[in-house]
Amino acid sequence: MKVIPIPCLSDNYAYLLVDEATGAAAVVDASEAGPVREAIAREKVEVGAILSTHHHFDHVGGNEELAGELGVPVYGGAKDEGRLPGLTNPVVHGDTVKVGSAQARVLHIPGHTLGHVAYAFDGHVFTGDTLFFAGCGRLFEGTPEMMLESLEKKLGGLPDDTRVYCGHEYTAKNLEFALHVEPGNEAARKALAEVQAKRKAGNPSIPSTIGLEKAVNPFMRSASPEIQAMVRGKHPDARDQVSVFARVREMKDNF
Ligand SMILES: [Zn+2]
CB count, 10 Å around CB of 169? Predict the structure, then answer.
């Protein structure tokens, strides 16, 4: 499957996916119509669906316009019915979505929002605002327990070589924070240098991989002794992993 990132708004990514075996294509997170329309024309593909990760405006702003123009269905989490523009095909955890010969499994990954879903194709996962490269979304609707389960169990359960495509270009700042809470993380230090070079050359930092996230992402590393010691230095009551995770999220909110 070919994945083409489409920069939208100030720091969002929409994606155009093309199943090379059949030429079938889909859009993930149509943030705004203009840049997505241009990418579709440039790639000369026929889009058969829009896949939305969650209801926030910067991920669905182009849904109605594009779905109308292209005459295609809009998939999104069933819990987002009534608040996800253009939603025609609500999906739940375990459902499958086809793009030509490629097939995605829907993962319900609440935390950032309650209806948030990921689309996990073989080798590629689209994580919206739940899992960022080296970070995670703010807990607008869910609890730390939910977010931890979404990140570590559901997304962390995918094969390590799965490429991760997220909703925003926040990577350099996320890696700076990763090194703030875990200064001894050499993998994060190396990733930051690589990401800075990519951004300097005008390229997106994404994708990462699930394996790399487990190595550098502080929100998938709340069991790390260095992170736990750093958090407990400030919050001695943070005894279990969920409390450590919640404190790390709080520290990032104020970083
Ligand atoms: Zn969001």
Answer: 20
- Tokens 């996916």 correspond to 17
Distance 138 CA to ligand 1 centre (A): 8
Which has the closest alpha carbon to 198: 5, 1, 2, 66? 5
Pairwise CA distance, residues 120 & 116, whole Å: 13
- DSSP annotation of 150: I
For residue 236, what pLDDT is reported? 96
Look at the block and give the residue holding tokens 């079938």. 24
58 given a catalytic annotation:
yes
Q: Are 212 and 194 in contact (CB under 8 A)?
A: no
**Non-local CB neighbours of 49 within 8 Å, separated by 6+ positions:** 26, 27, 72, 73, 74, 75, 89, 97, 99
CATH number (domain holding residue 60): 3.60.15.10
3-state secondary structure at position 104:
strand
Report pLDDT for 32: 98
The total number of structural domains in the chain stands at: 1
Q: Which entry of 19, 29, 95, 129 is annotated as an active-site residue?
A: 129
59 flagged as catalytic: yes
Q: How far is the CA of 166 from the centre of ligand 1 (A)?
A: 11
Q: Which domain holds residue 162?
A: 2-253
Cα separation, 58 vs 29, in Å, equals 8
Q: What is the pLDDT of residue 243?
A: 97
Rounded Cα distance between 255 and 15, Å, is 29
Burial of residue 161, with CB atoms counted within 10 A of its CB: 0-12 exposed, 13-18 middle, 19 or more buried: exposed
Number of residues in the chain: 255
What's the pLDDT band for 200 if we cut at 50, 70, 90? very high
